Amino acid sequence: MRKTVCLVESPRTGAGQDAARSLANWGYRTVILVDRPEKLDQFLLDDYRDIGTSIVGCDTSSAAAIVEAACGIAGDDLAGVTSVYEYFVTVAAEAAAALNLPGPAPEAVRRCRSKAGIRSAGDLVPGLNPRYELVHDVTGALSAAEKMGYPVVVKPVGLTGSVFVRRCDDATEVTRISEHILGTASYLGVAMEPTVVVEEYLAGPEYSVEAFDGRGLGITAKTSGRLPYFVELAHQFPATVEPGVAELIVETAERGLRAVGLDWGPAHVEVKFADREQRIPRLIEVNPRVGGDRVPELVRLATGIDLTARHMAAVVGRPAPEPATAAAPAAAIRFVAMPDTGRLASIDGVEDARNGDGVTEVHIKNQIGDVYRSHGSNRDRIAHVIATGPNADDALKNATSAADRLRFGWDPIEGAAEYV
Length: 420
Hints:
Elements: E1 4-8, H1 15-25, E2 29-34, H2 42-51, E3 54-57, H3 63-74, E4 78-82, H4 89-98, H5 106-112, H6 115-122, E5 132-135, H7 138-148, E6 152-156, E7 166-168, H8 171-182, E8 186-187, E9 190-191, E10 196-200, E11 206-212, E12 215-224, E13 232-237, H9 243-260, E14 266-273, E15 281-287, H10 295-303, H11 307-316, E16 330-337, E17 341-348, H12 350-354, E18 359-364, E19 371-373, E20 381-389, H13 392-403, E21 407-411
Helix pairs in contact: 1-2, 1-11, 3-4, 4-5, 7-8
């Protein structure tokens, strides 16, 4: 019988499919453990079927249930348990540890999954954190904002994808978003802690450091959409930064990794500057997984390093795969945002986009007939295009030009957008 790896849940970003393909290429059987298989998107079901990956129902909120399911599926042939989905990295690490399988320290992952945990760890490293306060009611949020001075950023402690993260310019906005966070019991089935983080607003550019085993491997530049939201609309790898600035970014990220105790496997560490002159870097968060938004694909195209394959190799105890030949010096991804509300009526220009300069991937995540109301988060994106180029700026120009060829028709629907 083939050795089996169980992946806990599947994001919509393509990371799960990339992981399953790598494992299949090495002869492993891959099983995706999913709490509600019937809720998986059709494109995920299609992709996993084509790879030869099985979908099995399981209570993925419980490490014990994951252990029982994985052992029942594979027995002595179980080679690994992990997750590439932000919301399930902790429970997967707990299951792997219970089975004495390779994986990150569960306590480090648990720390990373809470913005409160990251900030508490960062407090021990001078100059790492922005100014912040953790509060449990609206009065506390208002008091923190007044002490810091407006604008501030208000966010929940345990979500991802910029969900409910807002820049607030006055007390009315702080009250509104704090009430919403504190009044929301769960999001996409994930229980929300009744805690609000109030942070100083950092006006400088933001980057992510793609890391492995506690060391930075490269820097990604991020482009976000209109404030007060923080919807990510583009990424470029490698980021175009001066050598001294690059060293600051990587050093800050690695200090953050040491602070939270994450020294095994992949990490996606976000760093933002307090000023436009890029003198004062601050740690935003540490994600104990490969980057989302297809960032690993940008790294692979630009360097030949397959971060997802490297992660899977660590999970099963294989040597890290050798880098392949890079496709181009740089790669970028451009997202297409949805309107606030609407029913998707038509999709055109896909082949035109695929024929664009340097284009390697065009993906549409919605189907005709889908009804959408905006969340003011990274879920408010209908499509993306990945392209390469001789440098990061040209790669983004190629991706943007191709994305502009995509045309979506939307019919109006009743009801307001869902964001706050």
